[in-house]
Design a protein that fits this description.
This protein is α/β, with parallel strands linked by helices. It has three helices and four strands.
Length: about 80
């Protein structure tokens, strides 16, 4: 499980994509702990949606900020993305 901390936005999205690409090769079920993500913009959301579409992802304990973004942007969820906690 990867634990992400801080902000996921335009300035960090490219780095995050690279890290997730490497992790996808190692693990059949990619799990991301987002409990300490303080902010996520649409660029960060795009990274997660792309990952869900191509490989699938489990989001564990999303922070209040991330949970709110999911509620507004993807209120019915998306295929390939499971949210736990």
């Amino acid at each position: 499980m990867l634990r992400l901390v801080g902000e996921i936005d335009m300035s960090s999205a490219e780095t995050l994509e690279g890290i997730l690409r490497e992790e996808r090769e190692k693990d059949s079920e990619l799990r991301l702990d987002l409990s300490e993500v303080t902010f996520m913009d649409s660029t960060g959301l795009r990274v997660l949606l792309s990952l869900a579409a191509s490989h699938g992802v489990v989001i564990v304990r999303p922070s209040a900020a991330v949970r709110r973004l999911f509620e507004v942007a993807i209120p019915h969820g998306v295929p390939g993305m499971e949210i736990r906690g």
